[in-house]
Amino acid sequence: MKQVLIELDDETAERLERIAPARSRQRSGFIRAALARAISEVEEQRTRQAYLDHPDNGADSYFDPRVWEPTARYRGTGKKRK
Q1: What is the DSSP letter of 24?
Q2: In angstroms, rounded to a whole number, what is the distance separating the alpha carbons of residues 21 and 5?
Q3: What per-residue confidence (pLDDT) applies to 24?
Q4: pLDDT single digits (tens) 34-62
Q5: What is the CA radius of gyration of the chain?
Q6: CA distance 28 to 5
């Protein structure tokens, strides 16, 4: 695992201390989760923007729903209902 040293302004450091105190060993996990979430959000925004810039028009690919959706089969008991 790689270590990263960051500097925080006093207000952010105080807020972090209230949420994830260093003495409880929750701070590293909290920061890792916050970074993972922020990175994921940026990646999602970039993907969204890429689709907005270059939308699918249907001519780019061929789609055959029969490949993805299996045909329905009747699995009855063989008994007739009255």
Answers
A1: G
A2: 17
A3: 79
A4: 999 999 999 999 999 998 998 877 676 77
A5: 26
A6: 12
